[in-house]
Amino acid sequence: MNVNEDRFTRLKLVNEFTEASLTRLMGSKVVIVGCGATGTHLAEALARIGIRTLKVIDKDVVSWSNLYRTALFTEDDALKAMPKAISCAQKIVEVNTSTQVEPVVDEVNPLNIENLLQGYDLIIDATDNMDSRLLINEFSVKHGIPWVMTGVESWYGNSWLINTRAGGPCFKCLSISGGSRRCRVLGVTPMAVKMVTSASLTLAVKHLLGLTKEEDWSTLHLIDSRELDVRKIHVAKNPECPTCQHRKFELLGKDFIPIVKPSCGKNNVIEITPPEPVEIDLNLLLKRRQKTKVIASNPYTVKLKLSDKSRAIIFRSGRALIEGLPYRKAIEAYETLTGIKISHKLAKTDY
Ligand SMILES: [Zn+2]
User: Which residues in the chain are classed under CATH 3.30.310?
Assistant: First the structure.
């Protein structure tokens, strides 16, 4: 092994972590969807334990309100409005130079999921919404790639290794008749984040080492960080499940992403995605901004103050998050700043 000999000395004293199992971990490929509270903790922990191929996917930038519950991010990231995926990748190099992290500043959606998640041994869900989990679930069932669901709210959370390839139930088996798909801004404690990501890390590492068995992939862990309690709930396969039983992939089949939509998990923020792939010259945008004040800029994003109550974050990819403006005003501001005309295409959207 080409590795600092001292790095895993203490880990190798634990029975399951032999030279062979460490080599197996190092050769594993893991993709983490979402790089917020749970995603940063899991990315850091996986890099520290030796995973050498990681991809982290997140469409957002680091904000001050992230810092109390995330790993890796610093005040400087919030000041610069750094994309979370980029910051995460940059910090992980400092944790383990042998880990290659591919950052993706985007969301996982039906149009790109096949490209983004293909070829990995394990998918980690570190998102905060049901739509993303249901989409990941369809991809996982279709391609037989296991995933670890990780959810946190308030003092509580859940963690579940979903492995239909081995015969376990899928996420839709549990959520077939329930579960809110509404985007909400959730309260979260860092204690819940730590406990839940610890559980997900255990499931991920056990899976990658081949240490899981049937009861692991049919067990949902309900975690209560206030009472320091973990309850195990048995999940049975649903014989009527459209996803794993009938292999109907309704979300994967979607071929349309709205150009303008409310941003999930943020109040009063509109998200704009250009209809065609573009790369914005952020220096040109800074010249075009006229009197709007620059709050932060970096090679990937520019954050502008449009008025006392409105802000815009423009990504190099042409995506934008516009806060505090009504729909039409947000579109006008986007077109003025980026030079990309979208209003003539909006009649075709379902917004
Ligand atoms: Zn199912």
Answer: 260-348
